[in-house]
Design a protein that fits this description.
Shape: globular
Strand order of the largest sheet: 1-4
Order of helices and strands: HEEEEH
Structural class: alpha+beta
Helix content: 10-25%
Strand content: 25-35%
Number of helices: 2
Distance between the termini: 31 Å
């Protein structure tokens, strides 16, 4: 997948190990991620469990709502 030139100019590549967190509850993120390989699982903790709400897969963008609201 090729990115438009304006995205290439501002993007940088990051590699995350399996099990890493892109964001944690209560923390703000100012990054927009593109998944080249792997997947991202969205979940929240409840009692002693993790409740999965969504998966994002290769060739998708992911971020948190704080990225858009800057709150």
């Amino acid at each position: 997948l090729l990115f438009p030139s304006f995205l290439q100019a501002i993007a940088s590549e990051s590699v995350f190990e399996k099990g890493s967190y892109l964001a944690k509850v209560g923390h703000k993120t100012h990054s927009l991620y593109f998944i080249k390989k792997g997947l991202v699982r969205y979940f929240y903790p409840m009692a002693e469990k993790e409740i999965t709400t969504w998966f994002s897969i290769e060739n998708e963008f992911v971020t948190t709502t704080s990225f858009f609201t800057q709150q």
